[in-house]
Amino acid sequence: MEYLSSNKIAIIDLGTSKIVHEKLDEDLVRKKIGGVGITCELYERYQKEDPIILGTGLLTGTLVPASALGMITAKNPSTGKVCHAPLTLYAGMELKYSGFDYIVIKGNAPKPMYLWVHDGIADILDAKEIWGKDVWEATDSIRDSMGDALIQVLGIGKAGESGSDFAQVCINYWASGDRWGFGKLFGQKKLKLVALRGMSLLEIADPEEFVRECKELLSTIKNGSFAGKQGIGELSAAIGEDIRKWLEPIIHRHLSCFNTPFPTNTFVFLDEDPKLLKESEKNEPGFLITDIYGLLGFKKLGLSAAESSTLLRECARVGIDAVAIAELSQKAGKTKPEEIKKSFADLKGPLENLAKGTFSPWASPRPIFADFALPPDGSQNLNWWDRRQAMAYIFGIHPIFALMSPELTEEKLTELATIGTGLDFTSETLDQVVRNIIK
Amino acid sequence: MACEMACGYHRDDGFALLSSCIMVTRGREKKDYSAVVVKEEENLVIARPEGLERRKLGSTGESNQGKGKEDASAKPLLLREPCDLCSDRQDGPLCLQFCPVNAISMG
Amino acid sequence: MIVYPSYLNPLPFTPKIGIYMGAGASHSWLWFVDLLDRMGLDDVHFINEREILIDGLESVDVLLMSGGDTFAIAQSLGVEGSRRLRHFIEEGGLYIGTCAGAYLPLRSSMEFLNQFNFINVKISNISRRLSESERHLFQKHACSPYGCEFVYHVVREDVLLEMEEGYQVGGKKEIIAPLYGGPSMLPSEDMEVIAYYRGFTKKTKFLVEKELAEKTLNGNIAVAQKRIGKGRLYIFGPHFEHPNYPEANGIIARIILKEGKERATRPFDTGPLSSKIGHSFFEEWRRELSHSRMVAFGLEMLPLQWMIGNKWYEPEKIRVFLEALWRRLNYLESGEETAVALEDPKGMIGRLKEMTHLLRTMKKECDRGHTTDGLAENLFLHLKGVASDFLTIYFRKKKLESKLSGA
Fold it and tell me: Is A151 at the interface with chain C, CB within 8 A?
């Protein structure tokens, strides 16, 4: 696979420490396009070995607007169903440039290990120094020892190490869209984290045409219904749970994932003046809120914005799904931050709002800001949402942004895929791939 | 970072960050602090949230001897070429066109 | 594929080419590497000052000396190095010096440089030739100390040159080449002129008023040569080896292929042959180069610079070396195991890991706000050593494959 690709799949066996590199077959891309189209295929190939597949969309890491998405495909430990969790911020992009389009992780390590994936090399390394550390400490440790603060870390904390059903794979220091408990899978494999870094170059089949199309698409998108809005607060208003005033006093800044026109994340300062512009002298002055539902969950317990965000930070350190913690805390009658924090290990399921679908419910179940011309009775919402998420996860588009930008059509993304790779993709191919994924 | 990617494309005809003359420093993630650095012909322009700094390349700034003294015999590095505002492109700087959040403008 | 001007007739032998990368050498010697690579020449060796002092020049036919710190080069070679260099040329060797490599053999009374004086030529870009007001102009910038005088520089980037007959490409008199501090020479009977400075282009960057630049350069000598014994000395003010100037590159290619004589008296010391080196060896190179590159990339985001010797170094310069190796890595990784003779493969990997360690230490110290000048000096020494290790393997593999393919 020559274009928009590293042309490599890593097959990593944690049990035997064997690593095999395979070429990404162009025929596979023709048939399955990319992203979850291919991660599902790889999952089926290796399913007897209980794999975790890391992947990227076909357009991830390019100048296509919102091309930030990578994904984890694995079996939901609670439901046994194959599901996909989003890798956003800069993790998806970094995976694309790490020298591998896909990584298959199978088997269980005999002792705690971590994967270091960089520039076409995948190494299995001893995690004895970081096993037992929380997510933040582990990320800091990897970045310090490698001398690079741009390394993207997909890691687990104590929750994953101890086999919690709600263990989450976090991205660097922050919560991810993993609602499936994939952190538990990591822990079962004694895989502490996957560190990603790469400085490759992606070739493009028709560079000028591709970039021109991206530019035109971006111009169209920028004037969309999200224009002038930013951050978690606006997202909350869009889904009918307006927390803007509640959150406003602690907001420092809103942040976008790679190349994404709408900043879906909000950084709040908890131990620092939110209005501070220069670099804080405190090492950890706040938290990046990446998951609206976690925040809303804690708000429902009557907590303040600062208390809720502090709890979110604790969840991210431990590597546990804040949505689950909020729900279970409510069930258990716990409403004080300290008692909630102390009960992380003790809170047990089942969740009433257990996610059952294929794609993470981290992305809201309906359009955001935009009008996708759906019937007002909501009858088509689920079908529409599944299809929209499938499209996002195949091409590598931010799943939340996909819900706010009707301009990102399947036709346009298929066309860009054709121009960028030189392979002829059709709407029929996309239909087939989507059907296979959401069957 | 789309600006870096766009500039990298301008230099390399592919997607990479190796040669771009605009860089977003992302190393202070926990502090939510970053800057945009642009390499000009003679200067490094550092746009921080609190203000702009222009530092002459080949000088150490205020406190060292030989301040402002440039090395005319320095060989070009041919890695990150100084910003030329995409002078060979009709529509002007690519970083500006591709910033998804309109953070870059030209005065 | 050999890439050099078609009007050149290939020599009946492949010249053994030494590239100086020792003390005082900047990074522009990598431009010579790229040039020779494009020319398809693969008998390339990397020589430092220690090797010159112990007969290293006896193993090469051509010595290429690029830019850097002339004083540092002269000091490190010393009287003995000067003697060996002269002997090399007298016994048929071809010396090509650009910029610092051009200043080195010129007439000088300055300490260290006065050990050379291979060619009785004065330079025009020295302060004693300036008026009082002109001297004052240079006090603040664009000059290098030269005893109680200074060498000054009037332009950077493109200069227009007029080539003498015999060196014109396709009948074209004018050629463009870049100038970065190289000499402008006054006429002398002790040399044969190859090119004159004639003017400037739109890309020329003036460091002074155009009038003074014209007065300093135009009509003076940019490139010259001298016969010494059985060999020749070529001096280039501008960097004819710069990769973006193919016409200028062609001139150097022509000189190497026309003037290079088979004079090496012994093979380059390869030591005992190592066993076949294969994928795991190059995987180790990829691993450590990847580690080093990512740390170096991070350093480029910091407003750092280091003064090493008399030259400024920026973080970007680290990756100049690393990228020169990285882009050749795929070639080394391709194909079967190679019986490339390596003296000390384990030592190479050791130096490579040490380089990564140095970079990581520097990064930590920078993050703590500590000065890193000492580390930087050590690092750049290491970089040169690692680069020469790698490029040695690269050219040996190329040479081996040429032999096997009968090229």
Answer: yes
**Cβ atoms C63, C35 nearer than 8 A:** no
Q: Which residues of B touch A279 (CB under 8 A)?
A: 28, 31, 33
* % of chain A exceeding 70 in pLDDT: 99
C98 strand-pairing partners: C236
**How many other CB atoms are there within 10 angstroms of residue A148's CB atom?**
24
- pLDDT, one tens digit per residue, over A103-123 is 999 999 999 999 999 999 999
pLDDT for B60 equals 42
Please name the residue that has the structure tokens 């790469």: A198
CA distance A289 to chain C (A): 26
Tokens of A230: 């930013």
pLDDT at C263: 79
Q: How many CB atoms lie within 10 A of CB C1?
A: 5
Query: Which residues of chain C does B73 touch, with a Cβ-Cβ cutoff of 8 Å?
Result: 67, 99, 144, 153, 180-182
| Cα of A44 to nearest chain C Cα, Å | 30
| Complex ipTM over 0.90 | yes
pLDDT at A9 (0 to 100): 98
Please write the tens of the pLDDT for every residue from A49-88: 999 999 999 999 999 999 999 999 999 998 899 999 999 9
* Interface membership of A21 toward C (CB under 8 Å): no
Amino acid letter, A204: I
Q: How far apart are alpha carbons A29 and A103 in whole angstroms?
A: 15
Q: How far is Cα A33 from Cα A391, in angstroms, rounded to an integer? A: 10
Query: Is C273 strand, coil or helix?
Result: coil
Amino acid letter, residue A185 = L
Which residues 6+ apart lie within 8 Å of A187 measured at CB? A156, A159, A160, A161, A162, A163, A167
Q: What is the DSSP letter of C194?
A: E
CB C232 within 8 A of CB C225: yes
User: Nearest chain C Cα to B72, which residue?
Assistant: C142
Q: Are C151 and C100 in contact (CB under 8 A)?
A: no
pLDDT at res. A385? 94
Identify the helix (H) or strand (E) that includes residue C328. helix C316-333
Whether C176 shows a pLDDT value over 70: the answer reads yes
Residue B16 and residue A200: Cβ atoms within 8 Å? yes
Supply the pLDDT for residue B65.
42
Pairing relationship of beta strands A191-197 and A70-75 according to DSSP bridges: unpaired
Grade residue A218 by pLDDT with cuts at 50, 70 and 90. very high
Q: Under 8 Å CB-to-CB from B31, ≥6 apart: which residues? A: A279, A280, A282, A283, A284, A285
In angstroms, the CA A170 to CA A176 distance is 5
Q: Mean pLDDT over residues C47-54, rounded?
A: 95
What angle separates helix A305-318 from helix A322-331, to the nearest 10 degrees? 120
Report pLDDT for B105.
85
Is-above-0.90 flag for pTM?
yes
Give me the pLDDT at residue B67, please.
39
| Residue of C28, C142, C305 with shortest CB distance to B75 | C28
What's the sign of the alpha-carbon dihedral C114, C120, C126, C132?
Answer: positive
Q: How many angstroms separate the CA atoms of B106 and B83, rounded?
A: 13
The pLDDT value given to residue C131: 81
Report d(CA A262, CA A399) in Å as an integer: 12
